[in-house]
Amino acid sequence: MNINNLTRKKLKLFITLLGNLIIAVIISIIIYFILALFFENTLSNMVCRLNYDLYSWIVYNRDVVVYIYIGIVLAVIIYKFISKYVNSINEVYNSLDLILKENNETIKLPSEVNEFTEKLQDIKNDYITSKNNAKEAETKKNDLIMYMAHDLKTPLTSIIGYLTLLNDEKNISKELQEKYIKIALDKSLRVEELTNQFFDITRYNLHTMPINKTELNITYLLKQLIDECYPMLEKSDLKCVLNAPDKVNYLGDGDKLARAFGNLLKNAISYSYKNTVIEINITEELDCLYITFRNKGDKIPDYKLEKIFEKFYRGDESRTSTTGGSGLGLAITKEIIELHNGKISVKNDDEYIEFDIVL
């Protein structure tokens, strides 16, 4: 509740109390005069019989009696008014326990403090949502660690096995030696990649990535990335076509943007049909730069598409030791784009997957 609302609430309470007091005084005076007009003799005789001294004092102090009478009425009204709002405050206080209960029980408060009901209900809903999100994130992270521990163990087992063969078998042919060394090297590189992913998780959770902006040629940057990914493209029988002007200048962090674009390109390679073309298009309009990554692949269900940029989320639920990632690639890509005051979105039809970037 902001200061203006609080002030209005105080003013409303004051006006309500004042109105009640005025009405009570008027009613009590009317009742007093009705009693004095129609029942004065009866009441006087009754008091006189009970206590003559009290009767005498009342006769000679009629004004004081009126003030005492009105004072008692006002005290009762103020007590009832305060009790009513104290009870309402107690209701608000007791309802705070409901916030911590993860159930669908609706918070209900008296009408006098009805404006608190919606706010407390919103707080409860936000609390439940935050707690559920935290549980989901923790589950994803635990699953990730378990999967990656398994993925680390698999190549390490192979490395140890092949190195043991090379060490124990003295009569292995040169061809087999080269083959085993090549396999051990590939598995070692996989271990390095997975280790780097663990570092990514730590960096991503500890702080926001800093950026150092310099003048870049985005076209040249993307050409370099395509060249670096050529072995991956060739292995999957894919081609990558860049449709862009020869020079597209942009002020940004080259290392971070290379990582973001690299994540998108590797993602496209991983989820493209074989013997298809990955398209990267760059267009410039006014002060904006539009970059699109487009590839042919299986349709992504809507529920996965909504979570595709979430941390630790992997669209491919079938994990393997060769393709399993940390689930951070697209999340980090989104952060890098947003650090450059840009936007990234994804759309998917029955044939194409498309990531659109605006810088």
Which structural class do you get from the secondary structure elements? alpha+beta
Rg is 39 Å
Helix content percent band: 55-70%
Distance between the termini: 38 Å
Q: Please, what is the average pLDDT?
A: 78
Spatial arrangement of strands, main beta sheet: 2-4-5-7-6
The succession of helices and strands, N to C, reads: HHHHHHEHHEEHEEHHEE
Q: Label the overall shape.
A: elongated
At the fourth level of CATH, the homologous superfamily of the largest domain is Histidine kinase-like ATPase, C-terminal domain
Tell me which CATH architecture of the largest domain applies here: 2-Layer Sandwich
Number of strands: 7
Sheet with the most strands? Answer: 5 strands, mixed
Strand coverage percent: 5-15%
The residue ranges in which pLDDT falls below 50 over 5 or more consecutive positions are 318-324
The count of helical stretches stands at: 11
Task: Determine the CATH topology of the largest domain.
Answer: Heat Shock Protein 90
CATH uppermost class of the largest domain: Alpha Beta
Describe this structure in words.
With about 350 residues, this protein is an alpha+beta fold. It folds into 3 domains: about 5-100; about 140-205, Orthogonal Bundle (Helix Hairpins), CATH 1.10.287; about 215-359, Heat Shock Protein 90 (2-Layer Sandwich), CATH 3.30.565.10. The chain is built from 11 helices and 7 strands. The protein has helices spanning about 5-40, 40-50, 50-60, 60-100, 115-170, 175-205, 220-230, 230-235, 255-270, 300-305, 330-340; strands at about 215, 240-245, 250, 275-285, 290-295, 345-350, 350-359. The strands form 2 sheets. Strands 2-4-5-7-6 form a 5-stranded mixed beta sheet, with helices on one face. A two-stranded antiparallel sheet has the order 1-3. A hairpin with a 3-residue loop joins strand 6 (about 345-350) and strand 7 (about 350-359). Helix 1 runs antiparallel to helix 4 (about 60-100). The longest helix is centred in the middle third of the chain and has 55 residues, at about 115-170. The chain is elongated and about 130 Å long.
